[in-house]
Amino acid sequence: MGEMINVDGTEFWVERRGRGPDVLLVAGLSDPAEAWQSQLDGLSDRYRVTAFDNRGAGRTPLPEEPLSVPMMADDAAALLRALQVPAAHVAGFSGGSLIAQELALNHPGLVRSLVLMSTWARLDAYVRSMMGFWHWMAERAPSERAMLEAFFLWIYTPRAHADGTVDQIIEEALAFPHPQSVEAFQRQLAPFRTHDTLDRLAEITAPTLVLAGELDIAAPPRLGRAVAEGIPGAVFEVLPGEAHQPFQEVPDLFNARVDAFWREVEAQG
User: Fold this and answer.
1) Domains of the chain
2) Any idea where the AB hydrolase-1 domain is (predicted)?
3) Is the pTM of this model over 0.85?
């Protein structure tokens, strides 16, 4: 079970599991902490795993002022300090990977290592247009179910659509008692769409693993490769046959890869 934690006057929903080296999981657009369930369950035998709801997702309120990626990175930093975590292995997915980039740039002492899944540093015209479509799709879709059915075409593999995985995820999302509003979806999406750290990536000093799904439409491997090329010493890997959210579709594979990376970092001292 999680709990609400007051961080600089804002109540954030936080879930923590296990003991060992600290890991902070940063979710992407719309996703609450529950998106990381397979990591909370599968990695907590070796790590102290923390997941939380970003502003405007799940149980954490949307602020009155505009959201920005640096603001959300400052939230993550303040949360780590509130939890008395001196430094953590930080894993961010999609929009959460952008937050993780800013966290490493603006609060480097808190970041032991970085895992950037389905990431980008600067969108190209194709993906920027795609996200523009998501913005108005959220308010024009005839129902929440229709919105999810359409949105998930960009998110999950054809395999997951065929074998019933996506249907199950949709049912779970519809049953979730803290759904994200259209306004919150659009206000989270806006800063992710305009995010640009391409010219600052060389300032990241944390050991970094960049992962991309071969079939990812929402954050194509070409964007992740550009991130890895910009960060000194970063390792770039493409997961064959996977799409935007392999940490959900193939959690054992994802967990094993990040565990191996974190073990390498820990061994280097």
Assistant:
1) 3-267 (3.40.50.1820)
2) 23-244
3) yes
